[in-house]
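Suppose a colleague, Dr. K., hands you the sequence of a protein chain of 102 amino acids and asks what its three-dimensional shape might be. Before reaching for any lab equipment, you can write down a predicted structure in token form. Begin with the sequence itself:
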Amino acid sequence: MNGIHDLGGMHGMGPVVQESNEPNFHQEWERRMFGMFIAVFAGGHFNVDEFRYAIERMEPADYLRTTYYEHWFHSIETMLLEKSVITKEELQAKINELKGVH
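The predicted structure, expressed as tokens, is then:
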């Protein structure tokens, strides 16, 4: 594979910046995303290969501009929609609720 998702060792992408004393989670939502991954995975909604494949199907520009846990969010959202665990309407209703949109 030679896609945007395989940046390891690619020339021209710049150095990998490592934070000194980097925390496991930078924001609380990342901690919740980790928990959501465990719950959805344990619920049998996907396997690790499906999870990774959903990330690999992200648009390259989106992949580059988003964070590690945003990739996870994309993957979980994609798989739950594709497997009809949730509908687009249910997802949009929840987004609207969280944004305070009625």
